Amino acid sequence: MSSSQQAKNTKTQTFTAILHWEEDVYVAECPEVGTASQGETIEEAIKTIFRRVLAC
Predict the structure, then answer these.
(1) Which residue, 21, 27, 39, 40, could crosslink 45 as a Cys pair with Cβ 3.0–4.6 Å?
(2) Considering its fold, how many domains does the chain have in total?
(3) Is residue 7 one of the residues assigned to a domain?
(4) CA pair distance 45, 43, nearest whole angstrom
(5) Which residues contact 17 (CB under 8 A, 6 or more apart)?
(6) What is the 3-state secondary structure (H, E, C) of 6-51?
(7) Is residue 37 part of a domain?
(8) What does pTM read for this prediction?
């Protein structure tokens, strides 16, 4: 299969990231996948939840 055929077969999915401050870290939750992550900054929490969603 050529790369253009693979691109046509690729589906885009949208996920929600809910961020909130909890004690001393930012928590990111993805309800569609049922996973959560945390980080010292918002950017770190988003990066970590992105990796976890991709791993599912």
Answers:
(1) 39
(2) 1
(3) no
(4) 5
(5) 28, 29, 30, 46, 49
(6) HHHHCCCCCCCCEEEEECCEEEEEECCCCEEEEECCHHHHHHHHHH
(7) yes
(8) 0.74
Pairing outcome for strands 25-30 and 35-39: antiparallel
- Domain coverage including residue 27: 17-55
Asked if residue 49 is part of any domain, the answer here is yes
Length of the chain, in residues: 56
CA–CA dist 18, 36 (Å, integer): 9
Q: What tens-digit pLDDT sequence spans the chain (56 residues)? A: 555 565 567 788 899 999 999 999 999 999 999 999 999 999 999 999 999 999 98
Q: Is residue 31 part of a domain?
A: yes
